[in-house]
Write a structure and sequence with these properties.
about 500 residues; alpha/beta; Rossmann fold; 3 domains; 7-stranded mixed β-sheet; 14 strands
Length: about 500
């Protein structure tokens, strides 16, 4: 990170002094700089002359006193508070009184660092994301002691480097990591509970939520030890159960299974292809005959999937006699139960009956039909998306969930499996994360634009959480969260007051 930040500053035509702990570390840093800029030359993004100019702007040293005339010093040592405090004590001694000192911490309290210096008003956080030359987001963290002028100077510098500066308060994990790691930790807890498999969770979040990577592939990329360190730092401040590290994560770190860096984490990394690539379905198998009961966007989307796959659609209970799969697409649970009961009376023996609600237990709907062994949950997190989540209940007959998955696959849908629990996979992971973002907004900790920028620019999400809440619907978010809370009694799943207030007022968050 230190080499990456030095490169970013030098690319911005700034003179840079890079300090390392000893000569060996300094040579490793020099190697990072030369390789990074060299890759840019090979890709045609930088000329050889431009590379030389960048490297010539960087002076490398092992002597802290060489920082004496710097206007800004950015610390990028490992995430240990005692180490950072020692570094800042030395910076406080050798730097000019008007110099701003910044920590590139990703999770520790900047205030805890600032109060050990003689210049707490000039201490800020400046969190670059890895790799620093590529990632556009920089979180600029102010403490209650930081003078506004110091924050403004750093934010202006970041913007001048072609990055996007997001200025926020000093909370462990800041915006991106506080939101991201609550979600990652919940995924690990979901795996540990047996709710769904590693592969199904990763596939669900890619195909159903549009994320670039599944949570387990991402944790392996970040490093499980780094994930654990960040969660412990955030949990120490928040005491939120969502940030209490999952035993599934802690156990792997203890065993030395750290992800890609060690060759084994949640996945074994042996170069055999993408760990979270969904299985393909046989395109030669004919599409099924499907009953689509109900009206509205979901019913229209399911019918469209059938049409694209070349399948036949039946829309009334009287027509269900030859259906392989019957999907109730009602807009409320009571209507859905009535449609399912009617379907159970007229559908042929062996037809799969599917419940689409993610907030009413499938088992409750199944028991009302008189043929609960034929009933599964079949949830489309995005009505017009390509993911179908299949949930069997404790009374679903053997082979029925397999048949449901095969039928959905013949409609061109990617299928994953999970238990009969509120939210299935995608909504159970997505809406608590969105709730965390709404709580952050409601507390005035960061604005809507800053929160969205943190997740899109810092984590590569296709859209930010505040935009997602408005797109998916605040009423849907509150309904799913209330179902999760009713099931788990976990306070972290209770809808934040800001969401409930906006639902009552029928107003979006923006």
């Amino acid at each position: 990170m230190g080499a990456g930040i030095a490169e970013v500053l030098a690319r911005g035509d700034l003179a840079v002094v890079g300090i390392e702990v000893n000569a060996d570390a300094l040579e490793r840093g020099r190697g990072h700089l030369e390789r990074s800029t060299g890759r840019a030359v090979k890709r045609g993004r930088l000329t050889e002359e431009g590379q030389r100019e960048i490297l010539d702007r960087i002076t490398l040293s092992v002597d802290f006193t060489d920082l004496g005339e710097c206007d800004l010093v950015i610390e990028a040592v490992p995430e240990r508070l005692d180490l950072k405090r020692r570094v800042f004590a030395e910076l406080d001694r050798v730097c000019r009184d008007d110099a701003v000192l910044a920590s590139n911490t990703s999770s520790l309290s900047v205030t805890d660092i600032a109060v050990t210096t003689g210049r707490p008003t000039k201490i800020v956080g400046v969190h670059f994301f890895n790799p620093a030359p590529v990632m556009k987001l920089v979180e600029v963290i102010r403490t209650v002691l930081t003078e506004p002028e110091a924050v403004e100077r750093v934010a202006a510098l970041v913007d001048g480097l072609g990055k996007t500066a997001v200025t926020i308060g000093d909370r462990a994990g800041f915006v991106a990591n506080r939101l991201l790691f609550g979600y990652l930790n919940q995924a690990a807890t979901m795996l540990e509970s047996g709710h769904a498999t590693r592969d199904d969770i990763d596939t669900a979040m890619k195909a159903g939520a549009g994320l670039p990577m599944g949570p387990f592939a991402l944790m392996d990329l970040i490093g499980l030890d780094t994930c654990l360190e960040i969660l412990e730092a955030v949990h120490a401040e928040s005491r939120d159960r969502r940030h209490a590290p999952s035993p599934a994560l802690r156990e792997r770190v203890t065993a030395g299974l750290l992800g890609r860096k060690s060759g084994h984490g949640f996945y074994v990394h042996d170069g055999q292809g993408s760990p979270d690539e969904p299985a393909e379905h046989d395109a030669e198998t004919p599409a099924p005959i499907v009953g689509v009961l109900g009206t509205g966007p979901l019913a229209d989307a399911v019918a469209a999937h059938c049409g694209r796959a070349g399948g036949q659609v039946r829309t009334t209970a009287a027509e269900l006699g030859d259906c392989d799969l019957v999907i109730e697409c009602a807009q409320d649970a009571e209507a859905g139960r009535a449609l399912l009961v009617a379907a159970a009376e007229s559908a042929k023996e062996g037809a799969v009956l599917a419940v689409t609600s993610a907030t009413v237990p499938v088992i409750e709907q199944a028991m009302a039909t008189g043929r609960p062994g034929d009933v599964v949950g079949l949830h489309l997190p995005e009505a017009d998306g390509t993911l179908a989540e299949i949930a069997a209940t404790v009374v679903t007959a053997p082979g029925v969930a397999d048949r449901a998955a095969a039928l959905a696959g013949r409609l061109g849908l990617t299928t994953v499996r999970c238990r009969d629990r509120a939210g299935f996979i995608v909504d159970a992971l997505r809406f608590p994360y969105l709730n965390d973002a709404a709580a952050m907004l409601g507390a005035g900790y960061a604005g809507a634009d800053a929160i969205d920028a943190a997740m899109t620019l810092g984590c590569g999400y296709p859209s930010g959480p505040i935009a997602d809440l408005d797109r998916l619907g605040l009423d849907r978010a509150v309904t799913v969260l209330r179902a999760l809370y009713a099931e788990t009694r976990d306070p972290a799943f209770a809808p934040t007051p800001l969401l409930a207030e906006h639902v009552t007022a029928a107003r979006p968050l923006r």
